């Protein structure tokens, strides 16, 4: 069974800092997703990756298929980035729609 | 506006009383899914559907039923709710299981 591990579990940063959140998984995947969940509970899909790198504003997501590892970077962090960031994968050998989730990284950005 | 609509947002019910949580999307997405979120356990997939009349179990399907009679709707049915089904539930949709997801606002269910 595929396991998805995220680190760190909790992260506190000062406004303006560069932030990295890591996600590792144990078997081959067909896609990896990064999600954001704000304190109010709503979930937003940030990125879907199967290779390489994607960028959206101050957020950058990378994936290394050989190392089974993905990172989410936030440049020039801001208090509004405070949220839980969740990594999820769909894996080969499972149905394309079967997602396995990491437990999330709680980010707090202080002004 | 493209969205996934879940209802109700909050629900308190008693053990054994059948309930349905509705989920509807207006984006013509083929893929829909249900998740529950619990402290310390994170998000876990309950059921998903790749298209009309096609559903499959996720990691925690016990005690739940789903149906996909139309593309836009994917209701979650609890035939006989129990207190261990108290949780925060999310519905989501995407064009395919591997494309970006749109999530509903969540349903906080309490079973007493």
Bulk shape of chain A:
globular
**H/E element sequence of chain A:** EEEEEEEEEEE
**Main pleated sheet of chain B:** 7 strands, mixed
The DSSP helix count of chain A reads 0
Strand content of chain B: over 45%
> Mean pLDDT of chain A, rounded to whole units?
91
Beta-strand content bin of chain A: over 45%
Distance between the termini of chain B: 36 Å
Mean pLDDT of chain B: 94
Uncertain regions spanning at least 5 consecutive residues of chain B: none
Helix content of chain A: under 10%
- Indicate the radius of gyration of chain A in whole angstroms: 14 Å
Number of strands of chain B: 11
Tell me the greatest interface: A-B, 25 and 27 residues
Q: Give, in order, the helices and strands of chain B.
A: EEEEEEEEEEE
Backbone CA Rg of chain B: 13 Å
How far apart are the termini of chain A? 41 Å
Q: What is the number of E strands of chain A?
A: 11
Helix content of chain B: under 10%
Discrete helix count of chain B: 0
Structural class, from secondary structure content of chain B? mainly beta
Q: Could you outline the blueprint of secondary structure elements for this entry?
A:
The complex is a heterodimer of chains A (111) and B (112).
Chain A: E1 4-7, E2 10-14, E3 19-25, E4 29-37, E5 43-49, E6 52-56, E7 59-64, E8 69-74, E9 83-91, E10 99-101, E11 105-110
Parallel strand pairs in A: 2-11
Antiparallel strand pairs in A: 1-3, 3-8, 4-5, 4-9, 6-7, 7-8, 9-10, 9-11
Chain B: E1 4-7, E2 10-13, E3 19-25, E4 31-38, E5 42-51, E6 54-57, E7 65-66, E8 76-78, E9 87-94, E10 102-103, E11 107-111
Parallel strand pairs in B: 2-11
Antiparallel strand pairs in B: 1-3, 3-8, 4-5, 4-9, 5-6, 7-8, 9-10, 9-11
């Amino acid at each position: 069974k595929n396991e998805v591990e995220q680190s760190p579990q909790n992260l506190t940063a000062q406004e303006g800092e560069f932030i990295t959140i890591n996600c590792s998984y144990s078997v081959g995947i067909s896609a990896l997703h990064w999600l954001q969940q704000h304190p109010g509970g709503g979930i937003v899909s940030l990125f879907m990756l199967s290779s390489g790198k994607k960028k959206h504003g101050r957020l950058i997501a990378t994936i290394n298929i050989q190392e089974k590892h993905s990172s989410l970077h936030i440049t020039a962090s801001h208090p509004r980035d405070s949220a839980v960031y969740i990594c999820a994968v769909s894996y080969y050998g499972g149905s394309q729609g079967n997602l396995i989730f990491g437990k999330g990284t709680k980010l707090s950005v202080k002004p | 506006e493209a969205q996934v609509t879940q209802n109700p947002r909050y629900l308190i019910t008693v053990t054994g009383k059948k309930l349905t949580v509705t989920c509807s999307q207006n984006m013509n997405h083929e893929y829909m899914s249900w998740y529950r979120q619990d402290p310390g356990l994170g998000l876990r997939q309950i059921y998903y559907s790749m298209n009309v009349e096609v559903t499959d179990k996720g990691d925690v399907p016990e005690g739940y039923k789903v149906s996909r009679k139309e593309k836009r709707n994917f209701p979650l049915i609890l035939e006989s709710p129990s207190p261990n089904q108290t949780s925060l539930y999310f519905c989501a949709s995407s064009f395919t299981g591997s494309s970006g997801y749109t999530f509903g606002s969540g349903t906080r269910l309490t079973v007493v």
